[in-house]
Amino acid sequence: MATMVADTENPCWYILHTYSGYEAMVKDSLERLIENNNLQSMIFDVKIPMEQTIEEKNGKRKIVERKLLPCYVFIKMIYSNQLWYWVTNTRGVTGFVGPQGRPIPMKEAEIRKMRLEEVVFEDGVFAVGDKVNVDSGPLEGFQGVITELNAASQKAKVNIQMFGRNTDVEVELIQITKIEE
Fold it and tell me: Where does residue 127 rank: exposed (0-12), middle (13-18), buried (19+ CB within 10 A)?
């Protein structure tokens, strides 16, 4: 059985496990490590995926940023044993996610689903009338037809059948894939 190993030539996204509540401190420490050791050509990005949720307290609603995956930090880097050593010895890091603490690069679909990178779709990828599948979000699993495209906001209006009715919904382009016929 072939297992995927860390890529030592191309930057890939990897997952770090941290102590609970240490995510922001780990991110800051890694950014300082990059700055102090001039590692900008080896470590490209460090992210804590967040989501906006609406919380109601004392009858008032407010939008709150919440960690999508507590105890995890995502890092885009070109893997090397030296970087592995520096990153795993950062305060708050318990290790990389992978067998025996050795990192496994994330797959393209996982990166899209976690929204780690802004994917910009060029004109011509989607067109009005295309049948699409919704891959993520609250409408995951639905199929529909694109009725309107907005390249500037990277969104599309998709006509889906919900509860026996055709309904136009707005989704981000990153959430849909074209169904080839």
Answer: exposed
